Each structure stands twice: as structure tokens, then as C-alpha cells.
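Q: Could you fold this chain for me?
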Amino acid sequence: MTASVKSFKDTFGSYPHAPTTSFLRSSYIQKDVPMVSSPIQLSATVPEAVRKMHVSQSSVLRSLRSVREPIISYQETRGVSRNEDITFLALLTSLCTHAYTAAITILVMLWNLAPLLDGFVYFARFFLDRLIQIFETQGQKEKIIRAAVFLGEILVILFLIFLIMGLIFMPVYVLAARIVSKIWGMIMW
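A: Sure. Below is the predicted structure, expressed as C-alpha cells.
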């Protein structure tokens, strides 16, 4: 016989003389753990800290479903069926597709900065044409006036180039440089 059966027999005698369930409840179980059959009894017999920890499975499911519902509604507007089973492979495919779309968007953004190079070619031609005009001018007074106008135009253009570079080109350049450095770091790691 095992130790638990021996102690039961030693305590209560042979099996026919075993105590009833009501005796066990009244003498042993209620001393250690209260018997609770309803939430009202739970609130009356268990300390408040234990009651706060008591969360039924239905309330957890209800909370999870209330969070899931707006996500499903959003995905329905994007063409994902309400009843579609989201598998690991579907999630992986979706993440790769969105990453590909984001990478293409960044590359297109870089490609669309190419007209800035054309603007710099125009600037170079403007600069050279104005310098040639100034040097071909015969009168000293006329040269000074053209040079002053040219200096004002250059200041305005340099301010505009500074804004274009600072507000358009540099953020895109920094973004592209960080992406390239992260990829390079992952490859070399």
C-alpha cells in the first residue's frame, strides 16, 4: 500500500467505516480552502485580492474578440474576407509583399529626384552664360551693374538650392543611406 492509502486507513479505519463527504467538508476542507459554488459565495469567502485575479475564460475571449473586430473590419475594406483563415504562410507572404512595395516606393522616390540633376545643369548653364555676358560687356559701369544683379540672382538661387537640398534631397538621401547601411551591416554581420 502507498503512504497516502495507509494514512487514510490509519486515520479513518477500514473502507466501510470511511467518513461521509459532509464530514470531510466540515472538518478538513473548510479549514484550508473554502468550498465555493457560485460567484456570490466567492465574494463572501475569498479575500479581495484573490477575487480580482479570478478571470473567466469567456471574459478573456470576449476581450480578444473585441480587439479583433476592428482589425477584421479594416481588413475587409482592403479585400480580406471576414472568414479567411490567416495562416503563417499568408502572413509571411503579406509581410514580404508590403516590404517589396515599400522598397519600390523608396526607389521610385530616388528616381524622381533625377530632375534635380537637370536643374543643376540649368544652373551651371545660367552661371556660365551670365559670366560670359559680364566679361563681354564693354563699359565699366555696365559691368558693375550686371555683376551686382548677377550676385543678387546667385544669392536667391543659392537660397533656393539650399531649401531644395535641405527639404527634399537630404531627407531622401539620409533615408536611402541608412537603408543601405542597415542592409550592408546585416550582410557583413
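A (continued): The two ends are 63 Å apart (CA to CA).
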